[in-house]
Design a protein that fits this description.
heterodimer, A: 128 residues, alpha+beta, 7 strands, B: 204 residues, four-stranded antiparallel β-sheet, 7 helices, 4 strands, 9% strand, globular
């Protein structure tokens, strides 16, 4: 059976697509394109490889992350799964030598997930 | 707006579209290498040996963005996997179509021994159908009552095309006036265009 994952972006309580903003403002055009190509491929893969995906983030239940390298920088999209083959992108960041940039990325992502669970925030289709 | 429309919108920016083409190498090739290696039940070390590389190099190649890929590397990988390699210029639509249709789970390229496209074709003894741009399936010339088809590439469209083709052949063969047809008789419109020139060959 063909798989079709859907990616959605976190939208803040005041209506901002924070993933879309990160993609456009915080990362290079090449990284944006690499991420787009990665999502196009992952959308059809039933079980994501550890090469591209970390299913559990210690100390942060429910969170996982998509990983990719672009222009020699480690990028991370922290997110969580939702029903019907949906993956919610909560926060974009970079990663170097065991450290996230920004350093509070996981805490922020956890908070965003909490707001979604409480329906204080929403999601929208991924902006590419 | 669907995914394709969003990417087309993004492609309007010249910097992004150049980056998107590059990303098909940065991201697409690593996925292809890993898929083909697994389809052949090779470990990274085994593929490395065939390609005259070291295993860490293969591991890096299979990680999107982690390794620069040059033509020599691609030649060696193609040789190790016993597949061909096409390096050519293409319209952005074709690049996008490929990226959209590429499925890492089902991607496979036959090695030389398994490439049915190289077998001798019998002239005028079966159905040959081609799917060409924009979006129609043309069924031409047949004098065989019972044939089966295998799509030789673009497996993403295999099931849909096979079903449509079987229906078209069945309906055509029921009409005794329709033997040896040359004109397009069954325009079938798909919701999205498959890759240009997907060949469907008779296999028996």
């Amino acid at each position: 059976m063909n798989v079709a994952w859907t990616f959605v972006d976190y939208v803040s309580p005041n209506g901002k697509n924070l993933i879309g903003e990160w993609i456009v403002r915080e990362i290079s055009v090449q990284a944006r394109a690499d991420f787009a190509s990665l999502l196009l491929a992952l959308a059809k893969v039933r079980n994501w490889s550890r090469r591209d995906f970390r299913p559990r983030l210690e100390g942060h239940p429910g969170l996982s992350e998509i990983k990719f390298v672009s222009e020699r920088r480690q990028h991370r999209l922290i997110g969580c799964f939702a029903p019907a083959f949906t993956y919610v992108l909560l926060l974009g960041c970079t990663h170097k030598q065991q450290n996230y940039d920004p350093p509070n990325a996981l805490v922020t992502a956890q908070e965003r997930k909490r707001k979604l669970d409480l329906r204080e925030a929403s999601t929208c289709e991924h902006a590419f | 707006m669907n995914t394709r429309s969003k990417i087309i919108t993004a492609l309007k920016d010249e910097a992004f579209r150049q980056a998107f083409v590059r990303s098909q190498i940065n991201v697409g090739i690593p996925f292809q290498v890993r898929a083909l290696r697994k389809k052949r039940n090779l470990s990274q070390a085994e593929l490395a040996a065939k390609a005259e590389m070291l295993q860490p190099r293969i591991a890096a190649i299979e990680r999107p963005g982690a390794s620069k890929l040059n033509l020599e590397t691609l030649f060696r990988l193609a040789s190790a996997l016993d597949v061909g390699l096409c390096v050519r210029f293409a319209p952005f639509s074709e690049v996008l179509n490929w990226a959209e249709n590429f499925n890492p789970d089902s991607f496979d390229i036959p090695s030389f021994a398994g490439d049915s496209g190289l077998s001798e074709r019998e002239e005028n003894t079966g159905w040959i159908a081609s799917v060409t741009a924009p979006q129609t399936l043309n069924v031409v010339s047949s004098n065989m009552p019972s044939v089966s088809f295998r799509i030789t590439n673009n497996s993403f469209w295999r099931e849909q095309i096979l079903e449509d083709l079987h229906n078209a052949v069945r309906e055509t063969l029921r009409d005794p006036r329709r033997k040896g047809i040359e004109d397009p008789i069954v325009p079938l419109v798909y919701s999205q265009s498959p890759a240009i020139s997907t060949w469907i060959e008779r296999i028996h």
